[in-house]
Amino acid sequence: MNNLIQNEMMKLLAKKRLVIIGVIVGILVLMFTYAQYKQAEEQQEKLGTTDWRAALQQQIIDTQNRLSSNRMLDEWREQLEVGLKQQQYYLDHDINPSEPGAATFTRMFLENAIDLFIPLLIMIVASDLVSSENSQGTIKLLLTRPVKRWKILMSKYVTLLLSVSIIVAMTALLSYLLSGLVFGYQGWAAPVITGFGLNGADVDVSQVRLVEQWKFLLMDLGLVWLVAVVIGTLSFMLSVLVRSTPAGMGIMLAALISGAILNNMVSSWESAKYFFMVNLKLTTYISGSAPPIEGMTLLSSVITLLVWWLLALIVSFAAFTRKDVY
């Protein structure tokens, strides 16, 4: 098995996919770092101070102005009201929700990348792990080797898990190193609030507690890794079922984009909470943002994703071990 995994890793490295992904992440992190720097600079010029309390107070006023509009959908209004109460809580307790530093940037980057950007990166690796054997004409040689088929597929899946771990770690590391050039490398011990309870537009603060940012970041990384593994396994299943790599990537891309759209439209469609793409933004639960459908919790979303992961794994091995050789 070790030789098979080593062989698969060498094939993956030869394609330079991880290098390409690293370049993409690096470019995007630099773009977002510059955008956030310009935003902070513009805000300081507008307010005439570097005091974060003044900036947060201005955000509260802006949110109140938006809530005064009568043309807003009820679900958006509810999310804004939740955000407003959380901003007021931070201000009342003298806690900066955006403590400057690379650690804060990395946390926010991961939280915004968990449902689309990182899944897209994982898809680049996972979608052709098996289907590329068809396009290269090596599938017959692979299936007729004197090695059990499940071992061959398991070696590819372990390679996928290693790749997922490398991509998640590389994204976090590049975010920290590159953004730190502008914002500095401090902020690991900054307090972050977690434990907001939501009931519609009402915010329950009875379970709120302060967590050091490095602990919060570890929780974010664990949830990002879980989502990446689920998306990777689903892409892996498509790679087994669909002979064409572009077709498999197209199906997965359509599912991910539809999930991003559905998250803003499914508040009244309760059964949509069983779709994997509606459950990808796991970090919102620990940061206190409202879920796309009322009643969804971190536990229910994790269970839903694990069910999809298990089904995808079963289908992948069942289809690969019964695949015809011709």
TrEMBL record:
Transmembrane segments: 18-37, 113-131, 157-178, 223-242, 249-269, 298-320
Name of the featured protein: ABC transporter permease
Molecular function (Gene Ontology), one example: ABC-type transporter activity
Keywords: Membrane, Transmembrane, Transmembrane helix
Entry GO CC: plasma membrane
One Pfam family named in its UniProt record: ABC2_membrane_2
